[in-house]
Amino acid sequence: MVGAGEVFGSLSILDQYPWNEVKTVCDIGASIGTFSIPLAKTHSHLKIINQDLERVMPQAKDEWEWEAPEALQEQRIDFVSLNFFEEAPVAGQDVYYLRLIIHDWADAEALTILRNVRKAMAPHSRLLIQDFIVGNPDRSSDPAAKNMGIDVAPEPMLPGFGSGNTYMYQQDLLMLMVNNGKERLLDDWTALATAVGLRVEKVYDLGDTSILDLRMA
Ligand SMILES: C[S@@+](CC[C@H](N)C(=O)[O-])C[C@H]1O[C@@H](n2cnc3c(N)ncnc32)[C@H](O)[C@@H]1O
């Protein structure tokens, strides 16, 4: 999924997130390092684990050797195979990163993945989910506005202060047709997080996708 990752997976989080607060990152469903290679190059203090299915590992190692040989030489990258439906990722990392993973799956599978990640998390761990957050078209329910102490974002802003757009609805249909997955409202993300014992600490709007920064509840 290099193509989709490059088109949707905004790398502006490399500048927006306080990476200086963390030392270890586990990229879950990392593919060949589409996100974590730029992360390693931008923030050279980080130790990164590239986790994906066993069959992806050889290609991932080749890509890192080609694109980021310094990270291998400095032993800043590990490759650990993982089936995220069957096991937890490497335990106790500062950050767990899921980019363009959860929207591929319906709620039951999404919860299995998130429960496995939660098992690996230490009290200080953060789970960053980079995915789309669809704007809620229902003006009677606007959690983003309620967080600010008002009932609804004032017009002409969209509910949720315009955090949705038509592109996301197209993606929602695509995920349903191709994967039986879906894009989710902030309410949906909050419900998934709550169901696995996590809470939404902060949301970073990257323009296309967003990052949900989840912590232990
Ligand atoms: C849409 S791609 C996202 C890749 C990467 N996170 C990115 O943003 O470019 C989904 C990734 O999930 C991985 N994946 C699918 N099923 C998996 C499983 N059961 N366990 C671990 N990884 C899996 C795929 O191999 C693929 O690399």
Automatic annotation (TrEMBL):
<protein>
    <recommendedName>
        <fullName>O-methyltransferase C-terminal domain-containing protein</fullName>
    </recommendedName>
</protein>
<dbReference type="GO" id="GO:0032259">
    <property type="term" value="P:methylation"/>
</dbReference>
<dbReference type="GO" id="GO:0008171">
    <property type="term" value="F:O-methyltransferase activity"/>
</dbReference>
<keyword id="KW-0949">S-adenosyl-L-methionine</keyword>
<dbReference type="InterPro" id="IPR001077">
    <property type="entry name" value="COMT_C"/>
</dbReference>
<dbReference type="Pfam" id="PF00891">
    <property type="entry name" value="Methyltransf_2"/>
</dbReference>
<dbReference type="InterPro" id="IPR029063">
    <property type="entry name" value="SAM-dependent_MTases_sf"/>
</dbReference>
<keyword id="KW-0489">Methyltransferase</keyword>
<feature type="domain" description="O-methyltransferase C-terminal">
    <location>
        <begin position="12"/>
        <end position="139"/>
    </location>
</feature>
<keyword id="KW-0808">Transferase</keyword>
<dbReference type="InterPro" id="IPR016461">
    <property type="entry name" value="COMT-like"/>
</dbReference>
